[in-house]
Design a protein that fits this description.
Number of domains of chain A: 1
CATH class of the largest domain in chain B: Alpha Beta
Number of strands of chain B: 12
CATH topology of chain A: ABC transporter involved in vitamin B12 uptake, BtuC
Oligomer: heterodimer
CATH class of chain A: Mainly Alpha
CATH topology of the largest domain in chain B: Rossmann fold
Number of helices of chain B: 9
Strand order of the largest sheet of chain B: 6-9-10-3-11-12
Largest interface: A-B, 41 and 36 residues
Structural class of chain B: alpha/beta
Distance between the termini of chain A: 28 Å
Largest sheet of chain B: 6 strands, mixed
Largest sheet of chain A: 2 strands, antiparallel
Radius of gyration of chain B: 22 Å
Distance between the termini of chain B: 72 Å
Radius of gyration of chain A: 22 Å
Strand content of chain A: under 5%
Order of helices and strands of chain A: HHHHHHHHEHEEHHHHEHHH
Shape of chain B: globular
CATH architecture of the largest domain in chain B: 3-Layer(aba) Sandwich
């Protein structure tokens, strides 16, 4: 950046003073990265044997991947200034649609996946349209969607298959090929990794690219930061929000499909309660609840922290009942670290701006 | 003197039965700062909203670059080169200067999937453009929310200038600012005019208007109270004609009365206390 400044004309000696740390702390994900390192180090001390190994890494990644895919999509929506409480149950709905149609009608799984995707897109679109047209909080609108889907998941499944579980998805045409693409295992250094992890990493990179390197990312930040200002500058804020709701629904469809392919079955209660975990992962990753600030990499780091805690408790041989208590502590610590770093970054910036003004006024 | 870039002739605006503007005529010349002065309710906002395309006049003619025009939306006015910088500035506080500067008109490079925001160009341009306006930003990555009110106002002006404004309407840009900050903004207003824009500067403060203004239009109760070139009027005359000498005198009397009453009360209070 310093070289760009020089090209721009007058060399500004103050640019050099910004400093490495201020720039670092200005990134939204820095708190989550620190948090992830702390959690990893903690379990590395508590249970070093399995934790610090390729198997340990593989287990952590496996445990974080689908959560990470959702957290990234939810983070985009939160940066755009909205919530989606139906994102968790939507993973169940899409899994059930794919599972039921393919097992009952014998359709190829690829075709039923498309049907489920279409359904997810429609629900995402409706969520978005209702939020932008009514101006009601997305918290309420998507809470309604959540309950509708939650009820329908159980009700429809019971009507169609007479129980709350759809089994035998692995017997439908195209299953193996789809599994290979979305959720199969492969070996690296004797440990078992899954293609889900690759999807997660690729989607995180794409989301970061969109946020930071395209005009659409600019629009997302602006829409969440100040929708009126964005609109007055010609940003189609309403469409940005609708597209973001459709994005979380699509991510839920992807995760629902991946679960079908991994478990070879789908249960009606799948995904319920996860919506908050997605939001928490995004918040740990630096997203502000008020919108306009956050990052995709941060959300992925938030998901990674979750995965580490889940696996770490098992490795340490503790009762898994403690998972949520531990998680609460991690959330609190991460958010405090986050808040501290962000305030620090802002304080430095404000102090700098003040010093500059005073300097000017003195001159 | 050259042709006016923008002119209104005998413009009137009614809101229902309320006459907001009545037979107002005005001209704006490129390279000049035209100050629009008046008290609250004088019709300043109505007039600039007609110029900006927010409202349409009920009667009268509106000429832009010599042609009669009628704008149906702010977008149409903007497309023709009439940009308005409102008090709320339309900037997102959490976003860096360069992202705000190009918001809604992001420069892009690359093709297909790799079409991307030309960040390098954006940062360089912001630096250059603000530099040309005499605004020295330390770091284009600085969030706008951390800038002072005067700096933010100046960035908004520079943005309008960069995006090809021919007429720049500034709605009370100095109203919320301290003395020094206001001075900074006045400097940028003068710079914008020096770049051959027709600047319309709305204010109710004659002390801000007089130093930068080339022409002064004073509105009162929806009518033109007077139009002067700078050499035709002194600051004192302007203040007088804005407020009206008689009214000012009446106000002084009233204030004296209030002060006297307060002192009497205070005296009574202290006596009661002791």
């Amino acid at each position: 950046m310093a070289t760009k400044a020089t090209i721009a004309g007058q060399r500004d000696e103050r640019v050099a003073q910004i400093g490495f740390f201020r720039n670092l702390f200005r990134q939204p994900e820095v708190g989550a990265v620190i948090g992830a390192v702390v959690v990893w180090a903690f379990f590395a001390i508590v249970t070093p044997d399995n934790w610090v190994s390729v198997t340990g890494v593989a287990r952590i990644l496996d445990s974080s991947s689908t959560l990470g895919i959702m957290a990234v999509a939810v983070a985009l929506l939160m940066i755009g200034g909205e919530f989606d409480l139906s994102a968790g149950v939507m993973t169940g709905t899409t899994a059930l649609i794919t599972g039921m149609i393919s097992t009952q009608l014998g359709w190829s799984i690829w075709l039923t996946m498309l049907v489920a995707l279409a359904f997810a897109l429609i629900v995402g679109y409706l969520n978005g349209v209702m939020v932008v047209k009514t101006g009601l909080p997305s918290f309420i609108i998507t809470l309604a969607t959540f309950f509708i889907l939650r009820g329908a998941n159980v009700g429809v499944t019971r009507l169609v298959v007479n129980q709350v579980r759809v089994a035998g998805i692995d017997k439908v045409p195209g299953f193996e090929a789809a599994r290979l693409l979305f959720n199969t295992e492969f070996q690296i250094l004797g440990a078992e990794f899954r293609t889900v992890t690759i999807w997660w990493i690729i989607l995180t990179v794409i989301a970061s690219w969109i946020l930071l390197r395209t005009r659409y990312g600019n629009w997302i930040y602006a829409t969440g930061g100040d929708a009126n200002a964005a609109r007055s500058q010609g940003v189609p804020s309403q469409w940005v929000k609708i597209a973001l709701f459709m994005t979380t629904a699509t991510a839920a469809w992807l995760v629902g499909t991946m679960n079908d392919l991994r478990l070879r079955s789908a249960v009606a209660s799948q995904g319920i309660g996860n919506e908050f975990i997605f939001i928490i992962a995004a918040v740990i990753g630096g997203c502000l609840l008020t919108g306009g600030y956050g990052s995709a990499i941060g959300a992925s780091m938030g998901a990674l922290i979750f995965g580490m805690v889940r696996v770490g408790i098992t490795f340490a041989g503790w009762d898994t009942d403690w998972f949520y208590a531990f998680l609460g502590v991690m959330l609190l610590v991460s958010v405090l670290v986050n808040d501290f770093t962000r305030k620090r970054a802002e304080a430095v910036t404000v102090a700098g701006a003040k010093a500059k003004t005073e300097e000017k006024e003195a001159a | 003197m050259t042709e006016p870039i923008l002119a209104v002739r005998k413009i009137s605006k009614l809101f229902g039965s309320v006459i907001a503007l009545s037979d107002v005529s005005a001209e704006v010349y490129p390279g000049q700062v035209t100050c629009l002065l008046g008290d609250n309710g004088a019709g300043k906002s109505t007039l600039i909203k007609i110029l900006a395309g927010v409202h349409q006049q009920t009667d009268g003619d509106f000429f832009f670059e010599g042609k009669r025009v009628k704008f149906n939306s702010p977008r149409e006015a903007l497309a023709r080169g009439i940009a308005t910088v409102y008090q709320d500035l339309a900037m997102v506080p959490l976003m860096p200067i360069w992202r705000n500067f190009f918001l809604g008109a992001e420069p892009e490079k690359g093709r297909g999937l790799f079409r991307r925001y030309d960040i390098e160009f954006a940062k360089r341009t912001v630096r250059e453009e603000l530099g040309r306006m005499g605004i020295d930003i330390r770091d284009p990555d600085q969030p706008v929310g951390t800038m002072s009110g005067g700096e933010r106002q100046s960035v908004a002006i520079a943005r309008a200038v960069y995006f090809g404004a021919k007429v720049l309407i500034l709605d009370e840009p100095t109203a919320a600012l301290g003395v020094k900050q206001a001075g900074t903004v006045l400097k940028y207003i003068a710079r914008a005019a020096a770049r051959d824009l027709g600047v319309i500067f709305i204010t109710h403060n004659p002390h801000h208007a007089y130093p930068v203004g080339d022409r002064f239009i004073i509105l009162k109760r929806g009518r033109t109270r007077g139009i002067w070139n700078k050499d035709e009027i002194t600051r004192e005359e302007m203040i007088r004609s804005m407020s009206g000498a008689d009214e000012m005198e009446a106000l002084t009397h009233e204030l004296d009365e209030v002060t006297r009453r307060r002192e009497t009360n205070k005296l009574a209070d202290s006596e009661a206390g002791s």
